[in-house]
Amino acid sequence: MPIERTFAIIKPDAVAAGNAGKILAMIEAAGFRIVAMRKEHLTRPVAEGFYAVHKGKGFFAELVDFMTEAPVVLLALEREDAIAKWREVMGATNPENAEEGTIRKLFGTNIGRNASHGSDGPETAAFELSWFFSGCELQ
Fold it and tell me: Under CATH, to which class is 3-138 assigned?
């Protein structure tokens, strides 16, 4: 199976709670190579652009408010079958439905504050990686 890249965010709730290091340890234990990483406090225009696919949906404003309330950790991850594996490590979007031992089960509090984000497919991963990282950062 070829090496694949995906994009991940450790969300503001997890960073503010001091869980970023624990989540990074879980990422490495799951066999990911961290290609690029940056802690950043997202601006409103950056968050709105990143989540533009959700513009017009009822949760858009709340999502942007949440993602701009505190710093996040942005990650480019690499391994075989990275997209599917990262989604497995994160767990279900709603922490109540997530498998035991997953990031969202351990660190998420509800469907909106679920500790992590991950690309859902190759095209999304390509867009999301390029939104936050330049080509030279992904070497």
Answer: alpha beta
Neighbouring residues of 115: CB distance < 8 A, sequence distance ≥ 6: 10, 11, 13, 14, 19, 23, 95, 103, 104, 106, 107, 108
The answer, yes or no, to whether residue 114 has pLDDT greater than 90, is yes
Stated pTM of the model = 0.96
Domain boundaries, the chain: 3-138
Distance CA 109, CA 48 (A): 23
> Of 5, 87, 104, 117, which residue is the catalytic one?
117
Q: What is the pLDDT of residue 139?
A: 86
Determine whether 54 is an active site residue: no
